[in-house]
Task: inverse folding
């Protein structure tokens, strides 16, 4: 009972997160991870090949198969696939339409909350947003983001959701992986903005894609209210419509503000990201304030926690 899928890097990352608790410590040559769940062993290779072996391979495969239902559209074309994936292109002149966009910040940072924002950018607001410098937030400094965000939040309807670390850690421990948490937040932010602009309807909704649409809707299968109509997914969506660029700026602005508050709390500037500097700082925080404190400012399931404990035990004890 073996099935092989060819999946893109993003999906494999998603899978690695999904199977996190079942991942084996040793991996075969050329593999990214090997996970054993009841009735199925999943091995993902750097080449994009993913092997499902065992009696219950089918249910696992179905989780990751690119669904071709009409309930979603995808414009992601970067995929290593044996079969060409069904690609729905965006409506013509998409960048000029009235769109609700959503994006998230903080998911790769050990310290700080996860922030998701959605924003509605109407056709008529596009010129003013361009004038204010709304563009891909990755090209902007924190100061520019703060200046632009403060201006645009009084112009466009938006929704901002901040998931603080304690709540995030609780959700994570009760079985929500990060992808599911993100999906729930995006869906909620989109619902909020849709309600805010009603009875007006957007021409479409664009989500900055963090997983395959099929996986996204699977994460939302137990939610009562799921936005599906006119929903498009795109990677690098900040460059596809200003609504996502605006959402991204609002989310980043809120993230930076919360991050600064946490830094004030600990008395020094916390490092962003999830690198070696973060391990060192987390270890010193365990030494100073105890591990419980980490729960309130970090994403505990990141490997940084384990590394910080190791540093703490070898350096501070
Ligand atoms: Mn994004």
Result:
């Amino acid at each position: 009972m073996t099935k092989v899928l060819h999946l893109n890097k993003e999906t494999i990352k998603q899978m690695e997160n999904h199977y996190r608790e079942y991942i084996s410590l040793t991996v075969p040559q050329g593999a990214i991870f090997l996970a054993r769940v009841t009735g199925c062993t999943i091995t993902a290779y750097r080449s994009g090949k993913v092997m499902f072996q065992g009696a219950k391979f089918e249910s696992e495969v179905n989780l990751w198969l690119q669904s071709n239902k009409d309930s979603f559209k995808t414009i992601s074309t970067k995929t290593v696939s044996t079969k060409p994936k069904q690609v729905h292109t965006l409506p013509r002149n998409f960048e000029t339409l009235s769109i609700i966009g959503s994006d998230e910040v903080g998911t790769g940072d050990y310290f700080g909350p996860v922030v998701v924002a959605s924003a509605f950018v109407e056709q008529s607001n596009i010129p003013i947003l361009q004038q204010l410098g709304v563009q891909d937030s990755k090209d902007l400094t924190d100061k520019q983001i703060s200046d632009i965000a403060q201006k645009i939040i009084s112009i466009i309807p938006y929704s901002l959701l901040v998931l603080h670390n304690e709540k995030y850690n609780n959700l994570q421990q009760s079985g929500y992986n990060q992808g599911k948490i993100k999906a729930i937040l995006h869906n909620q932010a989109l619902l909020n903005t849709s309600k805010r602009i009603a009875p007006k309807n957007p021409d479409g909704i664009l989500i900055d894609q963090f997983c395959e649409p099929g996986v996204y809707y699977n994460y939302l299968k137990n939610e009562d209210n799921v936005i599906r109509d006119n929903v498009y997914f795109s990677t690098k969506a900040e460059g596809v419509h200003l609504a996502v660029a605006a959402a991204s700026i609002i989310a980043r602005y809120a993230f930076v503000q919360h991050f600064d508050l946490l830094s004030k709390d600990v008395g020094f500037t916390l490092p962003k990201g999830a690198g070696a500097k973060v391990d060192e700082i987390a270890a010193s925080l365990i030494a100073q304030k105890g591990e419980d404190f980490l729960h309130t400012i970090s994403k505990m399931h990141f490997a940084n926690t384990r590394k910080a404990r190791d540093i703490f035990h070898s350096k501070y004890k």
Observations:
- The radius of gyration is 21 Å.
- Residues 110 and 302 are 7 Å apart (CA to CA).
- DSSP finds eleven helices and ten strands in the chain.
- The longest helix spans residues 242-266.
